[in-house]
TrEMBL record:
This is Divergent polysaccharide deacetylase. The keyword Signal applies. InterPro entries: Divergent_DAC, Glyco_hydro/deAcase_b/a-brl. GO terms for biological process: carbohydrate metabolic process. Keywords: Signal. Residues 1-29 form the signal peptide. The keyword Signal applies. SUPFAM superfamilies: Glycoside hydrolase/deacetylase (SSF88713).
Length: 282
């Protein structure tokens, strides 16, 4: 084989290798999981149930419509979480059946029995408030031992940067995740939109973002538009798929065609083959 042919084949191989290296990270999309807290109180809840089934509802056990909302979510094959009230650092009033610092294991078990009854079909639990409770090691030890026996997943809402909840849950071999972005700490439309965009960018950069929001007017508006217009490289996923470490199913393929000469050993009239995903926009 003459030197020109060898050089051509080498260059052709390098071009293909560069393309494959560039595109391969896009074969698996970044993941965005959305959890809506405080479900069970308001008519606005119904707007959440009109969203894709990947959006998870987290229901407060003492809320008046807790069981009804859980049953509706189950009918839709939507993930259901228990949004368990826990003691905050502030003096703000919290719901009944809350976990409080100093509780013993039998008291916690009674609360969990109540929550399981009021929120059927729950696959996991995250904390409602709980900046004091989730930072108390003894309480979390008792709680996670019970949660492990209940075979529930755990999501730390991270209402306190000093939370020991996730670390303790993992020590009991509970599949555990932590919240990355809050959607609506501030209810203004501009801030809610900014936080949604932040969650999308976080997912693109880190491969996963867990976003927690509430069934409020501006939150619903932003979620409806945001979910509809997610970038091609971000997939909305269920919380259960994350806990179970399931692979993302790519649902938005983008076909790309390459204009390059085939190698000398290739057959003529090659068919163009669609890749899983195209190059994302900046």
């Amino acid at each position: 084989m003459d030197k020109n042919k060898m050089k051509y084949k080498r260059l052709n191989f390098l071009r293909i290798l560069q393309i494959l290296l560039f595109i391969s990270p896009l074969a698996s999309a970044s993941k965005l999981a959305i959890v809506i807290d405080d479900v069970g109180y308001r008519q606005e809840d119904y707007a959440i149930y009109d969203m894709p089934q990947e959006v998870t509802v987290s229901i407060i056990p003492v809320s008046p419509y807790a069981t009804e909302r859980a049953e509706k979510a189950f009918e839709q094959q939507r993930d259901v979480l228990i949004h368990q009230p826990m003691q905050p650092l502030s003096k703000i009033k919290i719901e009944d059946k809350a976990l409080e610092v100093g509780m013993e294991k039998p008291q916690i078990q009674e609360i969990m029995d109540y929550a399981r009854k009021r929120v059927p079909y729950a696959i996991g639990l995250n904390n409602h408030m709980g900046s004091a409770a989730t930072a108390d090691q003894q309480l979390m030890n008792y709680f996670m031992e019970i949660l492990a026996n209940e075979q529930l997943f755990f999501l730390d809402s991270k209402t306190n940067s000093k939370s020991v909840a996730a670390q303790t849950a993992k020590s009991f071999y509970i599949p555990t995740l932590e919240r990355h972005v809050f959607l609506d700490d501030n209810n203004s439309l501009a801030d809610v939109q900014r936080h949604f965009d932040l969650a999308v960018r976080y997912a693109q950069k880190n491969g996963l973002a867990i976003l927690i929001g509430h069934p409020r007017k501006n939150s619903i508006k932003v979620l409806q538009q945001g979910i509809k217009n997610l970038p091609n490289d971000v997939e909305l996923v269920k919380m259960s798929s994350l806990w179970r470490n399931e692979k993302v199913k790519i649902s938005k393929p983008l076909i790309m065609f390459f204009e390059m000469k085939p190698a000398q050993t290739s057959t003529s009239n090659l068919n163009n083959v669609p890749l899983l995903r195209g190059v994302p926009k900046e």
